[in-house]
Write a structure and sequence with these properties.
Radius of gyration: 32 Å
Number of strands: 32
CATH topology of the largest domain: TIM Barrel
CATH class of the largest domain: Alpha Beta
Structural class: alpha/beta
Strand content: 15-25%
CATH architecture of the largest domain: Alpha-Beta Barrel
Strand order of the largest sheet: 24-25-27-28-29-30-31-32
Keywords: Membrane, Transmembrane, Transmembrane helix
CATH superfamily of the largest domain: EAL domain
Pfam families: CHASE2, EAL
Protein name: EAL domain-containing protein
Number of domains: 4
InterPro entries: CHASE2 (IPR007890), Cyclic-di-GMP_PDE-like (IPR050706), EAL_dom (IPR001633), EAL_sf (IPR035919)
Largest sheet: 8 strands, mixed, barrel
Shape: flat
Length: 785
């Protein structure tokens, strides 16, 4: 346990200051030191681009104040979600693009510009010939060129239109320049492909010239939402007044986030790349923009900050400060109206230091005292913990109340104090006298001995939170996970972060607690490229589907299986699903992975059906997909392609996801059920669901979490929970699946309790299809014998 830190005694310098202040020489040396470090920090910020996020936010505010409408000379024909739904899955055939050229040419478009690559052959040579003929006939078509990353060589290679197309069209570049924060702030004037200089699409649309290697800043004050956009489906179907294209430059581009080609735009979020090219053209139409960067504002701020810190006359110092603040906050607005752009964050660092350095010295001691206490609860906060002496051999334990923010937002301050008091009282039972520190958003940390922070003790502490807290007579469920750090040779700040990381991982893996594993975070390069590697792994066959069999209790036969995704990496070996599935969900890239698993699982079930065997298949569905359109269409298409009856498919959604589902998700679940597909509540028992939630979710199946099953024969409370769940589910007409069954004793208990289906290592581990077929055949032969 960490000993309390004694209050620091004032230094000799501090006592001297309280008696009359530092000497002038000492003050100047102190200010010079501050000025030197501030200058260094500002230089590093500018050189590394660390201030770009703040600069972007300030620029967003300025853009809102000087919002501009586009010229209207460019119209976007968007390949949006509605176009894909009406005309077919993307990418389209060449004939679709041929139809777009013919329609737009007939409508009198000035230029027909494709922000789509045509570097590969189409489905048929006839389609390519018709497309080339349409380009030649139109005579005003521009095609996109870009680059692609060659994984074999690790270099970028050109991606240009096929010769049969490019000989009839103008070529424009759609290359983008990324900032260090992965946003697009500048576009090139031109690029070089196969030795030829190709103008950028933006420059070509604006009629502007520029050398290869030169760039121009984008003016984000131009309203992206005001860019005229027409659905490609309406153009092909002629469902609109086609005169809207007469005399206009028409850009055919992706306008759907699900398709891809997504970039981050400060102030607008994620935007398809075609709109960035339109934005670049609109910027150039207003004149040639100038980007002065950060260094000139930095030099001006350096001069004014030096005057503010070192001038003898107070009025000169204040004037310098006012001028510096004005120059960094107001001057950029007027400059941008003249098409001059600058970054001011490095300059602001100098200005901020000159403004607050004196006040900081005066209030430092009182701030430190006030800053170590949580204002609501009175508990010491994490700042106080970071100031303690080294923890030695102690174990650092972090508790994170997952729903704390949601609860506290609905409580008055006295209610939040009561809630924290109850949480701290329960934690104190597990901490056994250790001092508990409170962080923001439901974080609590303490240091204790390894014996007090063992697995059994943490399990017991977690059990205390199964009972709701009472605030003003109102019961409140608390969702708590724990993380521990036992590595004593690091500073407390790192150890606190490690324990919190472990608590978050426990929540993500539906565990009660987890110990920090530093090796898991060591491969930073792997994590940074995980999603790109995952997409490639799906295409290459490294990702595959395993099947864990399910036993039907009544018949004694294996009646189905759960599809579980696996990744066998040639170098890293087996990659944990918790690692890449969670990353895909957080990165909004779960669609492709889910469709891959669904397709494989449905084909497997259909193969059993083709042999005359009844076989059910279960697939996990991310809660993020329930909010997206198109899930039902994808599932129905896969079922139709494999001719699998919908009642043979079960889609599993976790209990916590089901409980937090919005109306759109509930409607999706209802629609799933309406077409005959089964819905299962997975991990039941871990989300504090109520009877109301149980009735609300349109499920046909309940899957009891393994944490309640694996101690069923030894824990009376778990047995009671399982029995009540089975009885409740049966009363509502739902079947019950128990997962995590590993012993004959637990199987016998579940049979007595009336469980419908069994899943676990006792029946079979996750396996490949061929092994599953052999397992079913062996059990069938054994039963017949």
């Amino acid at each position: 346990m960490l000993p309390p830190r004694p209050d620091a005694r004032p230094s000799d310098g501090a006592r001297a200051e309280s008696r009359g202040g530092e000497s002038r020489g000492g003050r100047r040396r102190s200010l010079a030191k501050i000025f030197g470090w501030a200058t260094l920090a500002a230089l590093v910020t500018g050189l590394l681009g660390l201030g770009q996020p703040v600069d972007d936010y300030m620029r967003m505010a300025r853009n809102m104040a000087r919002k501009q409408v586009p010229s209207g000379e460019i119209v976007v024909v968007g390949i949006d979600d509605r176009s894909v739904e009406r005309l077919g899955t993307w990418p389209w055939s060449r004939d679709r693009h041929t139809a777009l050229i013919n329609r737009l040419k007939a409508a009198g478009a000035r230029h027909i510009v494709f922000d789509i690559f045509f570097h590969s052959p189409g489905a048929t040579k006839a389609e390519d010939r018709r497309f080339a003929a349409a380009i030649e006939k139109a005579g005003n078509v521009w095609l996109a060129a870009g680059t692609t990353y060659d994984r074999a060589t690790g270099v970028l290679r050109p991606k240009t239109p096929r010769a049969e197309f490019s000989k009839h069209a103008n070529i424009v570049s759609v290359a983008m320049n990324y900032s260090v924060m992965a946003s697009v702030r500048q576009l090139p004037y031109a690029a070089r492909y196969h030795g030829d200089v190709v103008p950028s699409m933006a420059a070509a649309l604006a009629g502007a010239d520029g050398a290869v290697g030169t760039t121009f800043p984008l003016d984000y004050a131009i309203d992206l939402k005001a860019i005229k956009t027409v659905s490609a489906a309406d153009v092909i179907a002629k469902d609109i007044d086609m005169s809207v294209f007469a005399g206009k430059d028409v850009l055919i581009a992706v306008a759907s986030r699900d398709i891809g080609d997504i970039y981050f735009v400060p102030g607008s979020g994620l935007v398809n790349g075609g709109y960035l090219n339109v934005l670049g053209a609109e910027t150039l139409k207003r004149g040639r923009p100038i980007n002065v960067g950060w260094f000139i504002p930095f030099i001006i701020a350096l001069t004014l900050s030096a005057i503010n810190l070192f001038a003898a006359n107070i009025w000169i110092r204040r004037t310098a400060l006012v001028l510096a603040v004005f120059g960094a906050t107001v001057l950029p607005f007027f400059a941008e109206t003249r098409h001059i752009f600058m970054d001011v964050m490095p300059a602001l660092i100098l200005i901020a230091v000159s403004a607050i350095s004196g006040a900081w010295a005066n209030f430092r001691r009182s701030y430190k005292a006030r800053g170590n206490i949580n204002a609501v609860s009175g508990l010491p906060n994490l700042n106080a913990l970071r100031g303690e002496t080294a923890a030695g051999d102690c174990v650092l334990v972090a508790a994170r109340v997952r729903n704390f923010a949601e609860i506290s937002s609905s409580l008055p301050s006295e209610g939040e104090r009561s809630l924290v008091d109850q949480i701290a009282a329960r934690l104190a039972l597990g901490a056994r006298g250790a001092r508990i520190y409170q962080g923001d958003e439901g974080i609590f940390v303490w240091a204790t001995s390894p014996e007090v922070a063992g697995p059994d003790q943490l399990d017991a502490l977690h059990a205390l939170f199964r009972s709701p807290a009472l605030v003003n007579g109102r019961p409140i469920d608390l969702s708590v996970t724990f993380g521990t750090d036992t590595i004593a040779d690091r500073d407390l700040a790192n150890r606190i972060g490690a324990a919190l990381v472990a608590a978050d991982e426990a929540a993500a893996e539906n565990l009660r607690w987890k110990a920090y594993d530093p090796a898991k975070l060591a491969d930073a390069e792997w994590k940074l490229s995980l999603l790109g590697r995952l997409d490639a792994a799906i295409d290459s066959g490294e990702v595959w589907v395993a099947y864990q069999p399910q036993l039907d209790v009544a018949s004694g036969r294996i009646s189905g299986a759960e599809a579980l995704v696996r990744w066998s990496h040639p170098e890293k070996g087996e990659v944990s699903p918790m690692e890449f599935v969670l990353a895909a969900e957080q990165g909004n890239r779960i669609d492709k992975l889910t469709e891959f698993v669904l397709s494989d699982a449905i084909k497997t079930a259909a193969s059993f059906a083709a042999r005359g065997e009844t076989f059910d298949i279960a697939v996990n569905i991310s809660a993020r997909l329930l909010e997206k359109p198109g899930l039902i269409g994808t599932v129905r298409r896969l079922l139709d392609e494999s001719r699998l009856p919908p009642e043979r498919l079960t889609l599993e959604v976790t209990e916590s996801a089901a409980m937090t589902s919005g109306r759109a998700s509930i409607r999706t679940l209802e629609e799933i059920g309406s077409v005959g597909i089964n819905v299962s509540i997975d991990d039941y028992g871990t989300g504090f669901s109520t009877l109301e939630y149980f009735k609300k979710i349109p499920a046909t199946e309940v899957k009891i979490d393994k944490s309640f099953v694996n101690l069923l024969d030894r824990n009376a409370s778990d047995r009671l929970m399982v029995r009540s769940t089975i009885e409740l589910a049966h009363s509502l007409g739902r079947i019950v699946v128990a997962e995590g069954v590993e012993t004959d004793e637990i199987l016998a208990e579940l049979v007595k309790l009336g469980c419908d289906r069994i899943q676990g290592y006792l029946i079979g581990r996750p396996m490949k299809v061929a092994q599953l077929v052999r397992l079913i055949a062996d059990r069938t032969h054994a039963a017949a014998a």
